[in-house]
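Weekly sync notes, structure subgroup
Attendees: PM, AL, DS (notes)

Item 1: joint prediction request from the bench team. They want all two components modeled as one assembly rather than separately. Inputs as received:
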Amino acid sequence: MSTEESVEKGLKQAIAHHEQAQLKLRLQGLEARRNKIRKLRMISAIAAGIVLLAVIGVLLFPSKDLDSQALYATHFSPYPNALAPVTRTAPEDTLNQAFEAYERGAYVEAITGFKQMLERKNDSDIRFYLGMSLQSNSQHEEALGQYAQISPSSTRFQPQLHWYMALLYIQNEQFVEAAQSLERLLESDSPYKQTAAKELLEAIN
Amino acid sequence: MIDRDKEWQRRLREDDPKAMEEVYVTYRSAFFSYASRYGLGQEDLQDIYQDATVAMHQNFVEKQLELKDATIKTYLFGIGKYLIFSRLKSVGKAQVLVDQASEEEVETVAWEAHTPTAEQQKLSKYFGQLGESCQWVLKMFYYRGFTLSEIVEVSHYKDVNTVKSHKSRCIRRLTELVKKGA
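Output from the run, pasted for the record:
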């Protein structure tokens, strides 16, 4: 005979069991997505192989490689300075100088400035712009390393963080990770890049 | 890297499944390459790695775990190793363990599996049939150990009494489902 008391007694274990099954299903779904992407890559590679045979002597890369670079190039543009408007009145200020360099595309200079600031104080928003400068300077791995150190909840650029991380993952053909970043962007309340994220997600899925 | 680990730990304690997925993807290849020495098939390893990741996630949630001297990776691999040993024992390949034991660098993490009774399994099934809000409030209270006032803080419920009566209704509904299905 089940009473409310006996139901309550076994509920913690029952919910833990339910959660266990749900989490495992999630991972199985993730694995299925990975397999799908792997298959797509294989098909792309086979297709590329056939073209290679047809066009003897011409070196071709698998189409997915070309797609990922094209996707990255199409969607990447440096995020504007939305943190510290540059003023001419305080040229000695490191923040001002770093952003001034960032705005004119002198990314190496900007990187040095942002790094100096981070040595003094760990600030997620500054770290975002350090990542942005590295990414704009084609230092993709270093950029990803900086973004990965940012706790999304600690920066006002959370949706932007997901977007630029997704682009870097695409550039590096890490499509599962890219999809995760885009999903996190789509789950956010921000209208930032919602349409582009959906399109990109469809393109890589 | 350390910051990322701490951030993962924080998100896992808050029951964030995305954090679990990120950990899963990050260490997947490394785990497969580590575990390949035990001679288990690819499907077995995948199953074990998924179970280990889920167990890690649930340990963070239920025990509010904070790893002091270990990283998520070593903790996850420790659970994985424990599960590999259990699997090998169950298929009578215990000898492999003896052969490997001396050259191990990964510490086993013993893991108490959720082995629910038949009654709890039934309860788990009916729990899944409850509405979303009932599942949420029961999960927060019984599984994550939130107090009624903590639930008020993280939800739209206006006060403790509202949560309390909603929780009671959910328990009643669950009891009815169990009785109907008995």
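Discussion: The CA atoms of residues 74 and 105 of chain B lie 10 Å apart.
Action: AL to compare against the crosslinking data before next sync.
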